[in-house]
Design brief:
Shape: elongated
InterPro entries: Peptidase_S54_rhomboid_dom, Rhomboid-like_sf, Rhomboid_protease_S54
Transmembrane segments: 80-100, 142-163, 170-188, 194-214, 221-238, 244-260, 267-289
CATH architecture of the largest domain: Up-down Bundle
Structural class: mainly alpha
GO molecular function, one term: serine-type endopeptidase activity
Main location: membrane
CATH topology of the largest domain: Rhomboid-like fold
Strand order of the largest sheet: 1-2
Oligomer: single chain
Membrane topology: Multi-pass membrane protein
CATH class of the largest domain: Mainly Alpha
């Protein structure tokens, strides 16, 4: 009786060549395509009709601009936002080298503490919520900023090409905020945290989701992610909260962006981003009440 419930693997055939089996689908219209019909794109492959029409649907010509896998506009420079984010991180790092601890203390993330003896209480719980964002661009050590920027340059451009600039920016910022919020929620009140690692781990999670969506070999990204997680939990001084918070946030947002149904794409994508932002705010409110009550 057990064999009656066994599900056989689904076999798909090229929509233009019904006699040819394939496991690849068009990145825009999702129709199965064989190697002869695959047209390389920025992310994945497209069918000849989608390339010819540039419509993003593959069924009829359209006056709209070509779209990415997630529905964003295809830009000429598909690394622009990545370059801007990298430049902001490097610029803040240079500013820290010039200004020193004074700038670091005003930007880093911590829940609640007295900065100086008999001084005012500072931190996120004291109303300085901007620290959730500013700490994402803050680094003190050369190795720290170098490792994070290497990860950004490696992971960012493919995601920017697949999602489009606006969606990619939302993914990066919300991943970083998710990491900051989890750090604030579970860390000791005076424990400081800084760095872009939360956002970078969000890109890791999003890359895994994207590769799964395109049926790519996931082993390279999973191995790299596994190595980074080992360092996260074994290397002293690393905020595992920021890494895990960013990873989960990035994966969830990316899933909503690349799996949203076409007829409700924007509603699902914008709704997922809004929901994640609400969760971040809720985590911060809960922790603030805990520290100030």
């Amino acid at each position: 009786m057990e064999e009656q419930h066994r599900t056989e693997p689904r076999v798909t055939y090229c929509y233009r060549h019904p006699d040819r089996e394939t496991g690849i689908s068009c990145a825009r219209c999702d129709r199965p395509i064989c190697p002869e019909c695959m047209v390389p794109a920025a992310v994945g492959f497209q069918c000849p009709e989608c390339v010819r029409t540039g419509s993003g649907t593959g069924h009829a010509p359209s006056a709209s601009m070509p779209r990415t896998l997630a529905g964003g506009v295809i830009a000429a420079d598909r690394r622009l936002i990545t370059k801007i984010l990298l430049g902001l991180n490097v610029a803040v790092f240079i500013a820290v080298l010039v200004a020193g601890d004074r700038l670091v203390n005003s930007l880093l993330l911590f829940g609640q503490a007295v900065a100086q003896p008999y001084g005012p209480v500072e931190g996120v719980a004291a109303g300085q919520w901007y620290r959730l964002l500013t700490s994402m661009f803050l680094h003190q050590e050369v190795w720290h900023v170098a490792m994070n920027m290497l990860g950004l340059w490696f992971l960012g451009p493919p995601l920017e090409a697949a999602l489009g600039r606006l969606r990619y920016t939302a993914l990066y910022l919300l991943s970083g905020l998710g990491g900051s919020a989890l750090t604030f929620l579970v860390s000791a009140p005076g424990q400081a945290s800084l760095g872009a690692s939360g956002a970078i781990f969000g890109l890791f999670g999003a890359t895994a989701v994207l590769m799964r969506r395109l049926n790519y070999d996931m082993r390279p990204i999973l191995i790299l992610l596994g190595i980074n997680l080992v360092f996260t939990f074994t290397w002293q001084g690393i905020s595992w909260q920021a890494h895990i918070g960013g990873l989960v946030t990035g994966a969830l947002i990316a899933y909503a962006m690349v799996h949203a149904p076409r007829e409700h794409r924007r509603l699902v994508q914008y709704g997922a981003c809004a929901a994640m932002f609400v969760i971040v705010v809720a985590m911060c409110v809960v922790r603030t009440l805990q520290l100030t009550s």
